[in-house]
Amino acid sequence: MRKEARLALGITVSTIVLGACVAGPGTSANAQKPRQISASERAQAAQAHPEIMAEFGGAYEGPGSAMVKRIGKEVAVRSNIASAQSECTVTLLNTTVVNAFAIPGCYVYMTRGLLSIMNSEAELASVLGHEIGHVDAQHSKKRQNAALGSGLVSILATVLTGSSQVGQLAGQLGQAWTMKYSRDQEYQSDDLGIRYMTAAGYDPFAAAEILQSLGDQEALETKIRGQTEAAQVPSWARSHPLTTARVKRASQKAAATGVKPGQLKRDAPDYYAAVDGMLYGDDPEQGFVEGHTFAHPVLKIAFEVPQGYYLNNGAAAVTASGAQAQIQFSGGKLGDGDSLDSYISTVFQGVLGNSKAQYTGVQRTTINGLDAATATARVTTQSGNRDVTVYAYRTGGGSGYHFVFISPSNVNASSVVSTTARSFRRLTDAQAAALRKRVVQVVTVRAGDTAQSISQRMAFSNYRLERFLVMNNREENPTLRAGEKVKIVVYG
């Protein structure tokens, strides 16, 4: 959540769906014909772009950004849609989520999280080429009906409650499930991506390598977070299903190009130089997620969610979803002369819109030394009754913060609501100062260094070796050569 927290939740799931739509099976890469990006595609992309930027933390312009833009345009110009590099807009997003996507109009997006686990410019060219392939083949038009269907939960929530914000929350929490690709659809885009990167002069065998790394990252995420929470994390591996057969097939397609491994450029040294110093993990301006805790060093606030709830740190709100409830945390203006009652009324108005649902009388309390208040509304929907509970806090300085909890009325979510709401607190100056950013550091292996010894320098309290192996695409017990480059994560 950014410092300038606001009540709006940002982009809805339907916008993301348009960016991740796919083609039907059986379309041959060789069947693609040169075409012009239509004016309507450009207009829709330009309209969606600011919303996508707001949802994913904006553009990251630090180390790695120039490389992503350059290679994205190099690959795009080898496709059937971009006759000039200026026709595609390529953005490195300021988020730790491991993902990439593109929308019609040739707007292509890569996240810092995904870039951090790559190890060459060729791997980057592969992923960008894959995403451009979806645009090149006009997959969104071929999957339009399916895209609308996958946004149904968000649309229903909006219609049934009269609330755009409840709909947006439902959509935002469902992002991990909206970008599903069939095997044939993925194979088609793999083929296109390999074709583009090879034409751009990059080693096509890197395609299989990054697919393997993505699978390893997914497995590590599951291990660290646990099966339930990891399944909620938006990731390229879930939106682009990975299998051993797909990795093997990518190698076969690379061999079919006639290029020998290592014959074309990989540019690993250039990649390492570009990402050295790149921000890793959460941006301090958006706050930090550590396990089940959210802490913001600038706003000097923190809270926890229970086990089983994965925290998603968006630009405008922090969200979480679990078996009992959906949770949204955000902020707004609350002057010294404003009442918490009126603040809660404003929140409910934003959530329930023009709905006639009434909420209970506001109950005043004190939580961790802060003035707080809460109220609950029951909303009748075609799917059953829903309870919407708001907890609001006065923190001073003209700011207020609040949780919105949405749960089925027949589910007892009181423990989740109470535990989360009562964990909200102000941070001391010392506690806020202790929240430090992490950055990628490229180091040169020295004689006697091992993966185990180097990984101990990683700025994590757990899974240091496993994280090191994944972000450097190394097998277990690797042999490191003196003089080679590897990446670690350190405090910045």
Automatic annotation (TrEMBL):
Gene3D superfamilies: Metalloproteases ('zincins'), catalytic domain. It comes from the Bacteria. Its cofactor is Zn(2+). GO terms for biological process: proteolysis involved in protein catabolic process. It comes from Sphingosinicella soli. One of its GO terms (molecular function) is metal ion binding. One of its GO terms (cellular component) is membrane. This is Putative Zn-dependent protease. The keyword Protease applies. Residues 1-19 form the signal peptide. CDD domains: LysM, M48C_Oma1-like. Residues 441-488 form the LysM domain. PROSITE patterns: LYSM, PROKAR_LIPOPROTEIN. InterPro entries: LysM, Mito/Outer_Membr_Metalloprot, Peptidase_M48. Keywords: Hydrolase, Metal-binding, Metalloprotease, Protease, Signal, Zinc. Coiled coil: none annotated.
